[in-house]
């Protein structure tokens, strides 16, 4: 489990294309400290498994399913990525519960700078809009953010200078894809209420 608090802005060091997958070599001295084979590291919000590591770099395999459902397939050598290690038991939950399971992708629509923050508008797939509410939580490229405004096919977030400086959202431009993970609690509530409604309907 992750919290959506990015630890480090890493970099894609190499990309190896395989038959139905690809292998990334990523550079991140913070997240590789103490890393072991089999550990999980979130890359732009996608939970990946450490295959190998050497110094401040680690490799991770990305299957076709993940490439199709996320924006990782658009990464090239030199691309900057948000990196986060799983939260430790007993650690602070600084953001919200993040699984590292991407629900879909959106695109940056527009950026509106202000004196002390920046409003970013992001497109929202129709099948995810019901999970996104004003002042609720959403994960964008692995970053835990609060929704400012929620529309039928978009939402906005307000980025403070720290987020702009230390994550990929500081440089993403209109048209750039981003990974989205909605609040998992909303999905469980929907499933439980749905089953209850179906059950009550059958009882009648």
UniProtKB/TrEMBL annotation:
<feature type="repeat" description="Lumazine-binding">
    <location>
        <begin position="1"/>
        <end position="96"/>
    </location>
</feature>
<comment type="subunit">
    <text>Homotrimer.</text>
</comment>
<comment type="function">
    <text>Catalyzes the dismutation of two molecules of 6,7-dimethyl-8-ribityllumazine, resulting in the formation of riboflavin and 5-amino-6-(D-ribitylamino)uracil.</text>
</comment>
<keyword id="KW-0686">Riboflavin biosynthesis</keyword>
<dbReference type="InterPro" id="IPR026017">
    <property type="entry name" value="Lumazine-bd_dom"/>
</dbReference>
<dbReference type="InterPro" id="IPR023366">
    <property type="entry name" value="ATP_synth_asu-like_sf"/>
</dbReference>
<dbReference type="GO" id="GO:0009231">
    <property type="term" value="P:riboflavin biosynthetic process"/>
</dbReference>
<comment type="pathway">
    <text>Cofactor biosynthesis; riboflavin biosynthesis; riboflavin from 2-hydroxy-3-oxobutyl phosphate and 5-amino-6-(D-ribitylamino)uracil: step 2/2.</text>
</comment>
<dbReference type="InterPro" id="IPR001783">
    <property type="entry name" value="Lumazine-bd"/>
</dbReference>
<feature type="repeat" description="Lumazine-binding">
    <location>
        <begin position="97"/>
        <end position="193"/>
    </location>
</feature>
<dbReference type="GO" id="GO:0004746">
    <property type="term" value="F:riboflavin synthase activity"/>
</dbReference>
<feature type="domain" description="Lumazine-binding">
    <location>
        <begin position="97"/>
        <end position="193"/>
    </location>
</feature>
<protein>
    <recommendedName>
        <fullName>Riboflavin synthase</fullName>
        <ecNumber>2.5.1.9</ecNumber>
    </recommendedName>
</protein>
<dbReference type="InterPro" id="IPR017938">
    <property type="entry name" value="Riboflavin_synthase-like_b-brl"/>
</dbReference>
<dbReference type="Pfam" id="PF00677">
    <property type="entry name" value="Lum_binding"/>
</dbReference>
<feature type="domain" description="Lumazine-binding">
    <location>
        <begin position="1"/>
        <end position="96"/>
    </location>
</feature>
<keyword id="KW-0677">Repeat</keyword>
<keyword id="KW-0808">Transferase</keyword>
